[in-house]
Design brief:
Helix content: 25-40%
Distance between the termini: 42 Å
Shape: elongated
Number of strands: 25
Radius of gyration: 25 Å
Structural class: alpha+beta
C-alpha cells in the first residue's frame, strides 16, 4: 500500500450528489487541483506492510487496496495481464480515494460472505467509508471497479486521483475525452471509462478532483478497464446502482453457510477469497500478485498469478471437507481438462485458460522493497509427481460428495496411468526444488491411489490399491529414517512438514509408528511457539532462514486432530491469527516481526484454513 500525500491547494466544492449512492451524468463532484506527477507515483504513495492490504476480486482479476484508499495493484483484463496500477512494485499507475485531512486513522472490514471491502477512516471531524468491489457478474474482457464513498459522520472531504498506466507503468493515457460527465482514454491496449468524476482536471494523464460530501451523503465512482471500447451508459448513476445490486446479489449466491465450522466467520471468508480467485474456467490462481518477496534481498520472489494444479486440488479437497459446493465442481472440471490434455506430462501450473505459463522475465519495475519485479515462472519446466496423487485425492473427495460424474472417469484413469508410468522418475516435489526421489511425492501418490480405489469398481480398485502398496514399500525402502520417521529423500535425512500430509490423506494409518514418529519429529524439530516451518534450510535457528509456513501450521492442526490430540485447537488458533486486519494470509509469516511474507493472498493457505475449521468442528472422519 501507499500513503497518500498532500492533496494539493484546490478547495473542494460542496457538491450535492444526493443520498441514493448514484451520480448524475453531469454531476459536479468538486473542483480539481493542480497538476500531479506524470509517473503517477506521488511522494507518499509508498509500499506499506502487506498486512494492511485488502483484496477485491471477481474471479477474472483482483486488486489490492491500501490503507490510504489506493488501488496499488490491478492487472487487466486478466490475472496474468500486465498491471495498469502497479505502485505496489514501485511502478506507475494508481487510483486513490484519500481523506484530505492528513490527521486520520485507517480501518476497514469485509461485508460478510463477500469480497466487498469497506475502507474506513476516522479524521478529526468526520468518519468516512469507501465501499469497494470488482463488479459481478465478471466479464473476462472488462473489469468494473466500483467505489461508493459514504460520509458516515460529519463532512467528508476526499482527494481523488486516477493515473492509469498500462504495461506496468510504461504507457501514459492518450485519446483523452470527457463526454456527458464521463472520462474515457486509452493506455497501452486498454480502454478506460470513468464516471462520477465529471469535474476532475486532467494533466499529463493524471486526473484529480476534490470531493466534498455532507453527513449521510454518498457518491459513486465507476472505473471500467477493458480490452475493447467500453459502452457509454446514458445514465451513469443508474448504471452504478444497478452494478452494485448485481454485485451484492452475486456474492449472496457464492459463499455457503459456515456456522457448522470451528471458525464460522474465517471459514466463510476463506471460501470468499478462493471464490474471488477462481475464474469462469474453474481455474484458481495461486495469488493475484507477483514478486512480493518471501525474504528480503534473497531472490525468493515469484509470479503466482497462475493456476497451480496442486493448489487447485487442495482447494477442492478443503471445500469437499465442508460440503458439495460449486468450488469443488470448478476444481474437478479444470483439473480433469488438464489431465486429459497432457496426461503424464501434466504441468505444475497453467494460465487460467489452460495455456502454458510463460517463461520468467524481469519487469521494468523497482519491485516491492526487498524484491525484484518478475513475470512468468520457471515452474513451467518442472515435473511434480505429487500433483498426480493430489488429482486422485481431489477426484476421490468429489466422489464421496457425489460430484464425480461419469465424464470425469477418463481423467481418473489417465492420472493413474501417469503414476504407473512416472512414479520412478525424479521430480521437483512440493517445494519445487531440484529433481530427486522425494518421499512426499511418492507417498502422496499412494494416498491418492488408495482414496480413488474406494470409489472404483472392484477389479480396478484392487489393482490401484496394490500399486499404492508398492509405492509405500518403495518409500519405506529408501526414505525411512533410522529413528523410524520419514525423511525427505534417500539422500536427505531431514524431516519435512509436508510429510504430515500423506498420513492425513490416508497413505497409511495415523496409528502407524511411522506416522507418529514423523508427527513427533515435526513438532520437535520444525515448530516453535505454535508455528511450523517447512524444513531446516541450514544450521540457523528457525525463523532466521525463512518465515513460518502457514500451510504447515494448518497441516499440524489436521495431523494432531487426526490423532485425537487436544492440541489441534492450539495449532489452528495460532496459525489463523497469522493475518492482517483484512483477514488475508500470505505464504509465510515472519513470527519475530509479526509480518506477512510472499504473495498476497495465498490461496492454498485459505484452503487449509477452511479444511481445518471444517474438520476440527467434529471428530475425525477421514
Amino acid at each position: 500500500m501507499r500513503q497518500s500525500g498532500d492533496p494539493g491547494p484546490g478547495p473542494g466544492t460542496d457538491a450535492d450528489p444526493g443520498t441514493d449512492g448514484g451520480s448524475g451524468p453531469d454531476a459536479d463532484a468538486g473542483s480539481g487541483t493542480g497538476s500531479a506527477p506524470p509517473a503517477g507515483h506521488r511522494a507518499g504513495f509508498q509500499p506499506h506492510v502487506l498486512r494492511e492490504y485488502a483484496l477485491i476480486a471477481d474471479g477474472e482479476r483482483g486488486a489490492l487496496v491500501g490503507p490510504r484508499g489506493d488501488i496499488a495493484w490491478l492487472c487487466a483484463p486478466g490475472w496474468s495481464s500486465d498491471a495498469v496500477f502497479s505502485t505496489l512494485l514501485g511502478g506507475g499507475g494508481c487510483y486513490a480515494v484519500t481523506p484530505v485531512e492528513q490527521h486520520h486513522v485507517w480501518g476497514g472490514y469485509y461485508e460478510p460472505g463477500t469480497l466487498i471491502w469497506r475502507s474506513r477512516w476516522v479524521t478529526d471531524s468526520a468518519i468516512i467509508e469507501c465501499r469497494e468491489a470488482l463488479a459481478l457478474p465478471a466479464d473476462p474482457h472488462r473489469a468494473v471497479l466500483l467505489r461508493r464513498i459514504i460520509a458516515a459522520r460529519g463532512t467528508a472531504r476526499l482527494d481523488v486521483l486516477l493515473h492509469p498506466a498500462a504495461g506496468f507503468g510504461r504507457h501514459r493515457p492518450r485519446e483523452i475525452h470527457r463526454r456527458g460527465g464521463v472520462w474515457t482514454c486509452r493506455t497501452g491496449d486498454l480502454w478506460l471509462s470513468w464516471s462520477g468524476a465529471a469535474s476532475a482536471r486532467e494533466d499529463a494523464g493524471v486526473f484529480r478532483t476534490l470531493l466534498s460530501l455532507r453527513e449521510g451523503e454518498s457518491w459513486d465512482l465507476v472505473l471500467e478497464v477493458a480490452d475493447a471500447a467500453p459502452e457509454q451508459p446514458t445514465d451513469p448513476g443508474a448504471a452504478a446502482r444497478r452494478r452494485w445490486r448485481e454485485t451484492e446479489l452475486g456474492w449472496s449466491r457464492q459463499v455457503p453457510d459456515c456456522t457448522d465450522t470451528a471458525a464460522p466467520r474465517d471459514a466463510a471468508h476463506a471460501y470468499a477469497v478462493m471464490r474471488g480467485l477462481t475464474a469462469a474456467s474453474g481455474a484458481m490462481v495461486a495469488a493475484p500478485t507477483t514478486s512480493l518477496p518471501e525474504r528480503a534481498a534473497e531472490g525468493r520472489n515469484y509470479d503466482y498469478r497462475y493456476a497451480w494444479i496442486r493448489d487447485q486440488c487442495y482447494a477442492g479437497q478443503a471445500v469437499a471437507a465442508h460440503g458439495g459446493h460449486p468450488l469443488l465442481d470448478d476444481a474437478v472440471r479444470f483439473v480433469s481438462e488438464r489431465i486429459l490434455a497432457d496426461g503424464p506430462d501434466l504441468r505444475p501450473a497453467y494460465t487460467v485458460d489452460g495455456r502454458s505459463v510463460p517463461d520468467e522475465r524481469p519487469l521494468p519495475l523497482p519491485g516491492y522493497p526487498g524484491g525484484a519485479g518478475r513475470a512468468g515462472n520457471r515452474v513451467n519446466r518442472q515435473f511434480q509427481l505429487d500433483t498426480l496423487g493430489e488429482c486422485l485425492l481431489l477426484f476421490a473427495a468429489a466422489g464421496r460428495r457425489g460430484r464425480l460424474d461419469g465424464p470425469h472417469w477418463p481423467a481418473v484413469e489417465q492420472a493413474v496411468r501417469a503414476i504407473e508410468q512416472r512414479h520412478r522418475d525424479a521430480d521437483a516435489g512440493i517445494w519445487e526444488l531440484g529433481a530427486r526421489r522425494w518421499a512426499h511425492s511418492r507417498l502422496t501418490c499412494a494416498a491418492g491411489l488408495r482414496a480413488i480405489a474406494g470409489q472404483a469398481p472392484a477389479p480396478v480398485a484392487g489393482r490401484w490399491a496394490s500399486l499404492a502398496d508398492r509405492l509405500l514399500a518403495d518409500v519405506n525402502a529408501d526414505c525411512l529414517h533410522p529413528s523410524g520417521r520419514w525423511q525427505r529423500a534417500p539422500d536427505d535425512p531431514r524431516v519435512d512438514a509436508a510429510l504430515l500430509l500423506p498420513t492425513i490423506r490416508g497413505a497409511l494409518p495415523p496409528s502407524d509408528p511411522r506416522s507418529r514418529a514423523t508427527l513427533a519429529a515435526v513438532r520437535q524439530e520444525l515448530s516453535e511457539d505454535g508455528y511450523v516451518y517447512r524444513y531446516r534450510l541450514d544450521g540457523r535457528e528457525l525463523g532466521c532462514a525463512e518465515g513460518a509456513f502457514l500451510l504447515c501450521g494448518f497441516l499440524m492442526a489436521l495431523a494432531t486432530h487426526q490423532q485425537d490430540d487436544p492440541s489441534a485447537g492450539h495449532w489452528f488458533e495460532r496459525n489463523r491469527a497469522g493475518c492482517g486486519p483484512p483477514g488475508l494470509f500470505s505464504e509465510e509469516f515472519d513470527v519475530r516481526q509479526r509480518q506477512l511474507r510472499g504473495n498476497l493472498p495465498q490461496a492454498f493457505v485459505h484452503a487449509l484454513l477452511l479444511e481445518s475449521a471444517s474438520r476440527l468442528a467434529r471428530p475425525w472422519d477421514g
